[in-house]
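Troubleshooting log. The previous structure file for this entry was overwritten by mistake, so regenerating from the original sequence record. Sequence copied from the archived sheet and checked twice against the printout by T.R.
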Amino acid sequence: MVMILVDSSACLCRVERSVAGAAAARLMPRAKACVQPSLRASIHPLKPKRSPGRDHRGGAGGGGRQCPLIPGLPDDLAVACLVRVPRGDHWKLRLVCKRWFRLLAGNYFYGLRRRLGLAEQWVYAVKCDGDGRVSWDVLDPARRAWRALPPVPGEYAAAVGFGCAVLGGCHLYLFGGSDPRRGPMRRVVFYSARSNRWHRAPDMLRRRHGFGCCVMGNRLYVAGGEGCGGGGGLRSVEVFDPAKNRWSFVSDMAASLMPFVSAVHGERWYVKGLGAQRQVMSQVYSPETDAWSAAHELDAMVTGWRSPSVSLGGRLYAADCKDGCRLRAYDEAAGAWSGRVDSGQHAGSSHAVEAAAMVALHGKLCVIRNDMSVSVVDVAAAASPRWETVVGKGQIKAFVTNLLSAIAGGRRRAKNRVLHCQVLEA
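Regenerated output below.
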């Protein structure tokens, strides 16, 4: 059974009452109640699929006469108009008619937006509350506001130690982790920002949680972590190729590792974590040679490397304070961390304002904190980089929730924690 998720801003349970008349009623169908998510059968919509008898723009092909997308305009010109509508209003376009719905549900529409440079980047944050419930929100940078999304798939509603990555720029993957009832999982699901649906993907080859993951060459790599029944860390590494829609093993790590920070820099994957004896270890993987090695030649980088971090413009940036308002960059030529970028406006050192993730957003470095506040800085600026607050801390809903939790009791105080942040383009 296929269920369609409501878009980040598409939680619509009524239509505008100002629309009147029979003609308008035909164009604007009655809205349906919001639905809960479900997983679709194992498919992978990376390649556009054409329905029998319909063209790639969502219209009926051949035989019968059809109504134009926009009365009075050729379909090609109508599509050229629709692709310029801001992404935040796409849920409204889907309500107009079936042809518009099919157009916006396919890869052709969003592929055209990308080719024309009209695609918008939104930030998706997967978080966990004090009771262990996993949820996710989306940030539209143009509207500067977070919006709650429908629940994540049931397998990840209370999971821990799972991975999160983006393939193809528009597919958000959740994989592995440990379920309170089932233990470590091989499960893989992904969300498509184009179709606004969750789908199943092939399971991983090993059950694992608390592992490291990265994306290189549009292929998903998973390494280390812990398997079933404890027994120490894993050395195995596997890669998912979306073009072949399958997982395969690559070279094992030099030693078993429980990664706690990793980053892709210079076409190599750097991983830092705890070894079998709970000692701090660092390893680097090169997909070109399919080999792991100890990062001895980068001792200075590894020693000063903290989470969160991100590679942007050929340089590796890491937080130099708890709230992420001061950044450092690794200078490969000098072999040292330098070039501090300080906002001068520090939020403090509490758990709520702790920097949870850093992502690249429209060529700028974006810092996301546990209280869902967001700061953006253009680290490529020649002079002193300018910091900008996209979303301020202390949103009303979070403030009221924390206040009520504090009144109910200190031990029951809910502490939201951002687990993963990714950028999807559509």
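Residues 1-49, 51-56, 58-63, 409-413 have pLDDT under 50 and may be disordered. Archived copy saved in two places this time.
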